What we know:
The chain is mainly alpha-helical. The chain has one domain (11-75). The chain is built from three helices and no strands.
Amino acid sequence: MTEMIGKTLPASIRTGEGLRNLLFDEIDALREGTGDRRRAITICSLASQIISAAKLEIEYEQQQSLKGTAERATIADHKPSTLRLGSGRR
């Protein structure tokens, strides 16, 4: 399982991979009988909201990249960065 520090998540979990790991850890805990149903529901709800926000960010970037031919020329040079989830604030 992903190790939790107190009740906050370490900053390294704020990626798509970290979110998937957290969700699968919760599924495993529920299957093993060690998970808390309310906590799992809360995590799933928050994960859904995070995914929706990430989709909006991606759609916005795609729309911005389609504006104007001058901008299209620079898209080929643009290397997408890892999408970081959250503000990084604790």
